[in-house]
Amino acid sequence: MAQTLLAKLEKLRRPQEGVLHLCLKHEGLKAHLIFVLEPPLSGAYLATQAPMPGASPHPSQAMLRKSMPSTLIGFRVAPGLWEISFSDGRILSVSSRRKARGVWWSDEARLAGPLQTDLSALETIEWDELEQRRADHLIADWRAKERRRIERQQVKLTQAMSGDDPAELRQLGERANALRRAVSRNESCWEVPQYDGSEATQIIDGQAQTVSELVDRLFHRAQRAHRRIESTKLRLAALSTELDQLDEASPPPQREPKRSSRHYALPKGVRRFGLSDGHIFLLGRTALGNQAVTFRLARGRDLWFHLRDGPGSHVVLPLERGEAASEDLILAGAALALHYSSLRGERAEVRFAFRADLDAVPGQLGKALVRKERTIFVDPRAGATKEALAAFGLQLTSSD
């Protein structure tokens, strides 16, 4: 297949959250354009075989394929962002940027400049090889991180060993015990003379009230220092062994993150919508409820929805650390915000933003100043909207 993007789009797949696959056909030949959205090795690649055949599609795949244009005419590229233009004027944006990672359709380009069609600069690689390289990269990163952790612990433990010397404390206790009458005290400062009467050793101890207590405390400090040094030596030996074996070690298996349902008592004026996939939406029904949803319950990377032009409820989609919302979730949240607004039942734009991009308006309860937002057009009667709501078990009626 010629290294050009002027081709027919036969298939659009999203087998994983961090992978997008476009199957292209040009002059009877097929090629696979693969986008890896998550590190390591994020970027665009060409392959002769489809990635992850038979994998269950990501929930957003259905939304991405709706009204899918057929012909690609060019693309624009910026660091971490591709905009692929189609013959009907629509644009598929693919972003691997940390703060805006995802895939979405748009009608307007954000990038300027002429359209490119040459794909020859892309690396051609088989998916299995790319997965192996990514796995090797992850293992190397894990080993480097573990090495730094072990070396920091070694430095910290070595510094801790340079504290109290148990032998010196023991000798000081014996000397204080033998020369009790010569030991003097000035508030919390004790002076224990040498056997030959030379310069005395000063000890700061505000808890000892008598020479006997001082002697006991010196011996106890010597015992603790001895135990600490012995345990530190054992720990240093274990760390040294761990460091020697690190080049052959593998990272522990990843556990699936548990999605928090946040089933806490909700403030007055706040309603919870539980979704079939475990997510929830939090919605404010009053100005006080809106204030609580946005500025008390929502966290930095949670998504916030609100009607773009007009009053309405604040809707928040809580997300786990590092989790990205699918297009279906975004559409469902926007539909919920539209339903609980002054334009219920109408077609309208809904804006959404991260909670971190919102500021409260002093003196105006339930008002939010949005520094950075995106918008989505919602038609409550459209099949795509109804399917997105049904996918999560939501059914909005006029009686809600």
3D architecture notes:
It is a single chain. The protein has 400 residues and is α+β, with helices and mostly antiparallel strands. Helix content is 30%, strand content 26%. The protein contains seven helices and 20 strands. The protein has helices at residues 61-65, 127-160, 166-178, 211-244, 287-297, 327-339, 383-391; strands at residues 7-16, 19-26, 29-36, 43-47, 71-78, 81-86, 91-95, 102-106, 123-124, 184-186, 189-192, 201-204, 270-274, 280-284, 303-307, 315-317, 348-354, 358-360, 368-370, 374-378. The strands form four sheets. A nine-stranded mixed β-sheet has the order 8-7-6-5-1-2-3-4-9. A hairpin with a 6-residue loop joins strand 7 and strand 8 (102-106). It is elongated, with a radius of gyration of 32 Å. The model has no long low-confidence stretch (mean pLDDT 88).
Brief description of this entry?
With 400 residues, the chain is of the alpha+beta class. The chain is 30% helix and 26% strand.
Give the key terms.
elongated; 400 residues; 6-stranded antiparallel β-sheet; alpha+beta; 9-stranded mixed β-sheet; 7 helices; 30% helix
Measured as a percent range, the helix fraction is: 25-40%
Give Rg in angstroms: 32 Å
Shape: elongated
Q: Give the spatial strand order of the biggest sheet.
A: 8-7-6-5-1-2-3-4-9
Uncertain residue ranges = none
- Residues in β-strands, percent: 25-35%
Alpha-beta classification: alpha+beta
Characterize the largest beta sheet: strand count, sense, and whether it forms a barrel. Answer: 9 strands, mixed
Distance N to C terminus = 54 Å
Number of helices in the DSSP assignment? 7
Helix/strand order:
EEEEHEEEEEHHEEEHEEHEEHEEEEH
Q: What average pLDDT do the residues reach?
A: 88
Q: What's the total count of β strands?
A: 20
